Amino acid sequence: MDIMRDKRTLTWGIIGAGIIAHKMAAALKLTPGNQLHAVASKTASKAKEFAENNGIPHSFSYQDIVNCSEIDVIYVATTHNFHFENAKLALEHGKHVLVEKAFTVNAKEARELVSIARMKKLFLMEAIWTRFLPSLQLIKEKIKNHDIGTVKQITVSFGGFVGAKYEKRLKDPALAGGVTLDMGIYAISFVCYLLGELPESVKSMTRFGDMGADEISNYLFQFPSKCLTSICTSYNLKMSNEAVIYGTKGTITFPEFATGEQFTMHLHKGTNEVKETINICKKNHENGFIYQVEEVARCIQDGHLESDTIPLDETVAIMEVMDKMRAEWGFKYPFE
Fold first, then answer.
1. Residue 313 scores a pLDDT above 70
2. Mean pLDDT of 154-172
3. If you average pLDDT over residues 92-117, what whole number do you get?
4. β-strand 242-247 against 151-159: which pairing, if any?
């Protein structure tokens, strides 16, 4: 199958009709050159209601949506435990696929999806939408340009008390719950993206919640550049939600971790005295999903099978990191 389509508008379908799917439906409406054609759910009435509420022409079953010849791309928006089978179904029916994070439950599933996509010459990407935000891309540029010198330490705090509507998905091991796959993935992806590296040494520990999934998790990584990172994340504690990036010539503090618009550079030029403080604001669209939609569309229209911003090999490698940490904790999902 040729990845290029002989048309300007990219036609999308969504598998899953939950909370995150509504945000993607809104983003597709806001992004020129992209059209949402159908939504699918295991429950026909839920798909129909979602379609009516979002002005979508069709509501389908999973099989019908992947069989629809008018659809170019499938966005998988189901719970983690279903990502692999839903994405595999779409790829096997010749659809390009964007999979909500975490990409899969484990690296074995991730490798199989990548293999299918490459064999069929289809586009595939994990929906780490925060990587495409203008504010985060500007921070990466500052680091790449050595505005704060050589980065030697990154510290991330990311957590909060989740609302009732998210509790079951986050807490239930049967749904591949736990803070690492749901929230920790953002922080792990964040440090890997900023450094342009994957960790070579991984240490971690966790505290399990009452249903058996990881509730509070801490990760310590060392990268090939010898930069150290420490991450603390939880779905059941209010945390500072801040990233601090320490360089040899200065520090970047980034409140509202990952999605914020403002950050501050504290430049000390290699001394203990801050000589200059620079406050920077880079606006992001209210619906940050539009940037990943633009990336998917650009890649497909240009004939690329994956995104340079979040390459498939990196997605698999990060899944391997999370597998290693869960093995340290003796934690397997019941369906693994």
1. yes
2. 91
3. 98
4. antiparallel
257 and 143 in a single domain? The answer is: yes
Q: Write down how long the chain is.
A: 336
State which residues form the domain around 279.
Answer: 134-283+320-329
The Cα–Cα gap between 323 and 172 comes to 18
**Residue 269: phi, psi to the nearest 5?**
55, 35
CATH number of residue 21's parent domain: 3.40.50.720
Same domain, 186 and 324: yes
Residues 167 and 277 in one domain: yes
Residue 4, pLDDT > 70, answer no
277 and 146 together in one domain: yes
CA distances from 34 to 37, 90, 99, 204 (A): 10, 18, 17, 41
Residue predicted with more confidence, 250 or 169: 250
Q: Where are the alpha helices (DSSP H) in 154-256?
A: 164-171, 179, 185-195
**pLDDT value, residue 63:** 97
Tens-digit pLDDT profile for residues 204-215: 999 999 999 999
